[in-house]
Amino acid sequence: MRKQTASALAIILLVGSAIGAKSVYANYVSESQPVSVVKSISLTAGQGNQIYWKTDGYSSKGFKVTWSLNPGPTYPLRSGDQYHYFAEPGKNSDSLEAFSGNGTYYVRVCEYLGGKCGLYSNEVKMVLSGSDKKAEPIKNDDKVACTMEYNPVCGQKQVQCIKAPCNPVKQTYSNKCMLNAAKAEYLYAGECKKEDKARNLTVENNILSKKARDFEKRVGVLQAENKKLKAIIKDQQEEIADLKAQLENQ
Q1: For residues 157 and 136, is the Cβ–Cβ distance under 8 A?
Q2: Neighbour count for residue 203 (Cβ, 10 Å)
Q3: Low-confidence ranges of the chain (pLDDT < 70)
Q4: Which residue segments constitute the domains of the chain, with CATH numbers given?
Q5: pLDDT, position 138
Q6: CA-CA-CA-CA torsion sign (120, 123, 126, 131)
Q7: DSSP secondary structure string for all residues of 117-173
Q8: Over the stretch 15-53, which tens digit does the pLDDT of each residue have?
Q9: What's the pLDDT tens digit per position in 125-146?
Q10: How far, in Å, CA of 157 to CA of 147, rounded?
Q11: Beta strand pairing status for 169-173 and 124-128?
Q12: DSSP states of 157-193 as a string?
């Protein structure tokens, strides 16, 4: 009787564990992050402080409008950025304020994914007014806080050469925030193409080749100077030998 009771309890525990595991899995799936389904957002500046955008796709959580006196406004915000949030997927316009004074602002619209932005629109420059002061860009020397989201973009940075200007080197960044933090120039969405990587190797090889040629020239100069020093030392040794011979003959 005890064995039958123990067996029944074991079966109940196994079934309960299986149900609990399915429940945990279901919760995990339900808490997954929303996936971007927007292909593009085209932003234009209207009259006054108005902006309009067209969306190719459907943004279920709406849009974030970000603008700043500094280029590349983002969400989460940097110091000196401002935003409006619209939960309506069909929203396509907004009216902005000159929150830091009258002047030129940089504006972007992004697909909102809940806590962060997905795809960004193009950036537009527009003069905002309505304030009683003149705008002054905010210097943002703080480090930019970027998410670990992998939404690769290809960018390029200028190579610092010693004597001659070099072609910029293209590099894949994990997302656009990382590209902006590195102060690189945005080229296109996605990883850098193979031909770009090959071009980077060519640029790097040219730089190394130039350094090698400069080094060889320097070595040649040092060898010539060393040869001259050896000749001077030989002449001095011969003079010393002659002096010794003269002293011995006296």
Answers
A1: no
A2: 16
A3: 1-35, 132-145, 159-166, 195-206
A4: 40-128 (2.60.40.10), 153-201 (no CATH)
A5: 53
A6: positive
A7: EEEE---EEEEE---SSB--PPP--SPP--------EEEEE----SSS--PPEEEEE
A8: 444 444 343 333 333 345 566 789 999 999 998 899 999
A9: 999 887 766 666 555 555 566 7
A10: 21
A11: unpaired
A12: E----SSS--PPEEEEESSHHHHHHTTPEEEEESSPP
Cα(84)–Cα(79) distance, integer angstroms: 16
Assess contact for 78 and 94: CB atoms under 8 A. no
Short-list 208, 171, 209, 205, CA closest to 190: 171
Q: What percent of the chain has pLDDT over 70?
A: 72
Strand order in the sheet with 93-95: 40-45, 50-56, 93-95
For residues 155 and 171, is the Cβ–Cβ distance under 8 A? yes
What residue type is assigned to position 175 of the chain? N
Q: Scanning the structure block, which residue is given the tokens 């002096």?
A: 243
- Backbone dihedral angles phi then psi of residue 23, each to the nearest 5 degrees: -65, -45
